[in-house]
Automatic annotation (TrEMBL), chain B:
Coiled coil: none annotated. It comes from Flavobacterium ginsengiterrae. It is a single-pass membrane protein; Single-pass type II membrane protein. Pfam families: ExbD. Residues 58-70 have a biased composition (Basic and acidic residues). This is Biopolymer transporter ExbD. PANTHER family: BIOPOLYMER TRANSPORT PROTEIN EXBD-RELATED, EXBD MEMBRANE COMPONENT OF PMF-DRIVEN MACROMOLECULE IMPORT SYSTEM. Its main location: membrane.
Length: 208, 186
């Protein structure tokens, strides 16, 4: 009698295709990755249904939110290394602080900051991780010492010199921030005849 | 996991010496595991979504008050929205002394202010059409009080974008009556 042999089914699956896909995706994510840096001043943005995105270059972001001590603080950030370098140079000249080439290089790679120009050097000298931890007091923007205005002026000039373009300004405000603070920032912008700017918002569902 | 699936059917019968066929397959399980782990890591650490932004254009501001000309608009076309404390929202149509509608408290969102804005927008268009100027739409005046938050303002601007109202103004000035309405100290 011929025995009926049961064919043994192999339990392993062919992983080749899966492996291919996985590595393709991996490559894609590695190449498109820009490491997310923790913000020095975390803000909870209000959400909107607007679909337009922020531009990548020639952009300055004014972040306004409450610090740990409950006071409103203003942080400033410029995109673009060359513009940052030139802005720092201009601010140094204006406030009589000298920044070395090394400082400028470091500043170009930094993110947002919120200190008066005089103590900016200490922030530049810090390591990225320490900057977030450091309690930055915010950029002064009252009528006595309006450094935010100077930052805006200098960075706009730098953008025009380098890229021959007008700098775009975006306001990134905390949702709980009260209107008068936002109004103050808008007034500073309007004093410089910047009448059109962006408000950074989060995303909201379509069925809102 | 074994993966000897070269099939052993139809092999040699009898006492022939079989040279065992070497499987050409490599176990990829571990590799795939690793790959997916890394994918997950990169997906989570990548900021995939760029922040969105809302364009806002304000009118020219002139410090010289003599240059600021008051523009007269038909009060039948204006809707005033007062953003108050604790997400309070009050609106009225026309002049506060002789309002067409309101003043009334209303909620933010789909069933509140949006419905009202859309309704008023339609009625203003009908009104303008009867005057022979069908292009004159509604004018919304947004009045944020000192206690209103940035979220309130953005929500209201968002409503304007959703409802398709393109004439709106942000006016943080209050007449005594409006201040009373918004619960502000006068």
């Amino acid at each position: 009698m011929a025995k009926i042999k049961m064919k043994k089914k192999s339990t392993s699956t062919d992983m080749t295709a899966m492996c291919d896909v996985a590595f393709l995706l991996l490559t894609f994510f590695i190449l498109t990755a820009t490491a997310k840096v923790p913000e020095a001043l975390p803000v909870d943005m209000p959400s909107s249904t607007v679909q337009s995105k922020l531009p990548d270059s020639d952009l300055a972001i004014i972040t306004i939110g409450k610090g740990k001590d409950g006071k409103s603080k203003v942080f400033f950030d410029i995109k673009g290394r060359e513009i940052r370098k030139k802005t720092l140079e201009g601010m140094g000249a204006k406030f009589g602080v000298t920044f070395s080439e090394e400082d400028k290089e470091k500043f170009a790679l930094m993110d947002d900051f919120g200190v008066p120009v005089t103590s900016l050097k200490q922030i530049i000298d810090m390591k990225a991780a320490d900057r977030v931890k450091a309690e930055q007091p915010g950029i002064p923007f009252d009528s006595i010492d309006n450094q935010l205005k100077e930052w805006l002026l200098v960075s706009r000039r730098a953008t025009i010199d380098l890229d021959d373009k007008e700098l775009q300004i975006a306001i990134k405000g905390d949702a709980k921030e009260e209107y008068p603070q936002i109004k103050k920032i808008m007034d500073i912008l309007q004093d410089q005849k910047i009448n059109s700017f962006n408000l950074v918002t989060g995303m909201r569902g379509k069925d809102f | 996991m074994a993966e000897l699936n070269t099939g052993d059917g139809g092999g040699g019968k009898g006492g022939k010496v079989r040279s065992k066929k070497q499987s050409s397959k490599v176990d990829l399980t571990a590799m795939v595991d690793l790959a997916f782990l890394l994918i997950t890591f990169f997906m989570l650490t990548t900021s995939l979504s760029k922040p969105q932004s809302m364009d806002l254009s304000l009118p020219d501001k002139d410090d010289d008050p003599t240059k600021n000309k008051d523009i007269k608009v038909d009060e039948n076309r204006t809707m005033t929205v007062i953003l108050g404390e604790n997400n309070k929202l009050t609106y009225y149509m026309g002049l506060l002394s002789s309002p067409i509608a309101g003043p009334k408290d209303i909620a933010y969102g789909k069933d509140g202010i949006r419905r009202e804005v859309l309704k008023r927008k339609k009625s203003v268009l009908e009104y303008s059409a009867s005057l022979g100027k069908p292009k004159n739409g509604i004018i919304v005046i947004i009045k944020p009080t000192k206690k209103s938050t940035y979220r309130n303002l953005v929500d209201m601007l968002d409503e304007m974008a959703i409802a398709g109202v393109d004439t709106y103004a942000i006016v943080p000035e209050f007449s005594p009556e409006e201040a009373k309405l918004a619960g502000l100290p006068q």
